[in-house]
Amino acid sequence: MIHIGDYNKLIILRDTEPGLFLGDSEDQEVLLPNRYVPENFEIGEQIDVFVYLDNEERLVAVTDHPYIKKGEFALLRCNSVNDIGAFLDWGLVKELFCPFREQAFPMKIGGWYLVFCYLDETSDRLVASSKTNRFLDNKELTVEAFDEVDLIVSHPSDLGMNVIVNKTHLGLIFNQDLFKDISVGDKLKGIIKKIIVKNKFLFSSLLIRHVGAAAAWTILPIMLMEYFGAELYQVSIVYVANTLTAFLVMNLMSKRIQIQNITKYKIGIGMTVIVFVGLALITDWWMAWPFMAIVGCSWAFLFIGGNFHLMENNPRSTSTAIFSSTLAFSTVIGPVIAGAIAYYTDYTMVMYFSIIVTLSAFIISSKMKSEKPNEVPI
Length: 378
Description:
Blueprint: E1 7-15, E2 19-23, E3 29-33, E4 46-53, E5 59-62, E6 73-81, E7 85-89, E8 96-99, E9 112-120, E10 125-129, E11 148-156, E12 160-165, E13 169-174, E14 187-191, E15 196-197, H1 200-228, H2 232-255, H3 261-281, H4 288-313, H5 318-344, H6 347-365, E16 373-375
Antiparallel strand pairs: 1-2, 1-4, 2-3, 4-5, 6-7, 6-9, 7-8, 9-10, 11-12, 11-14, 12-13, 15-16
Helix pairs in contact: 1-5, 1-6, 2-4, 3-4, 3-6, 5-6
C-alpha cells in the first residue's frame, strides 16, 4: 500500500515521457516526475520516495526530503496567507496548507509556527495544524520517571516551557530546571523527572465528603440533646473522641502506618461512610462516642493521605491550597443543607443524607488510580 505523507520503498515499473511510474506489491502506481528521476536506474529496482498530492491533487512521488511528514511535529515558516488559510514551507514544491480552523493563532507571512502534519480523511490532503495539544495524549503514558526522552519545545508558560515528549505526550520543563536558552521548535533530549496527575477525583470526592460531614456535625449536637437527652458536657465528651483520636492516629501514621498515601485517603473516605451509618442508628448519646473516635481516625487517614498525595504528585503549592479551600467551601455549604433537611424532615434524615453523599465520595475516590496524567515534568 502506498502511504501518503510518508516515505515509501517502491519498485520502478516503467519509464515514460513524464517520468517513472512506481508501484507497490498491491499494484498501486504513482508517478515520479522527471525532475526527481535519478541519473542511473533500472526497471525493477527499488527506490525510496516521499508521496503526497501535487498542485493538481494528483498522487506524486518525490525524492526530496520534506521538513515534516504525516504524524510529526516541526517548526515551519509561513510563506503566504489567503482567504482560506496559510501555506507553509515544508521543503517541497507544493506548500503545506494550514486552514484557519487549525490555527491556534492567526498565522502571518514570515512567521514561524510549530505544527503537526496529518492526513485529512475527507480530501486525502496533508494538512498542518498549530493546535498541537489536540494531537497529544497523556491518558495512556508510554514513559516512566527517569526515562530518557526526545523533546520538542512547544510553547512557554508561566511555570516554564511546554514540550512534546516522544512525539506523543505533553510535558513541562519548570523554570528552575531550565539551564540553557531554548526556543519553540528546538529538539533536545531530556529525563522524566516526575509524573503529575490531575486531582479532579480527589478534590471532588473531598468536597462531597466534607459537605456530608459538615451537615452531620451541624445537626449531631442538637440530635444528641433533643433525641437522647444529652447534656452539654456529654456532647463535649463525644466530640473530644474525634479530636483525640485524630491527634493520636496522625502521630502514629508518620511512624508506623506505611501504606500509599492514595490508599490512606480512600480508607479515610470509606471509614466516614461507616460512621454516618452508625450515627443514624444510635439509640443513646454515649453510642456516638465510638463512632466519633472512628471519625478522628478517618480524618487522620484522609487529611494525611490527601495532602501528601498532592505534595508527592504536584510540586505546586496551589494543590494543597485548593485542598484547604475545598474544606472551607464545603463547611459553608454543609450546614445550609443540613438546616434545610432538618427543617422539612428531621435530624435523622440529615444522617441519611450524609451517608449517601459520603458513599458517593468513596465511589469517586476509587477512580483516583485511573486519573489522567496532566503533565510530565522533565
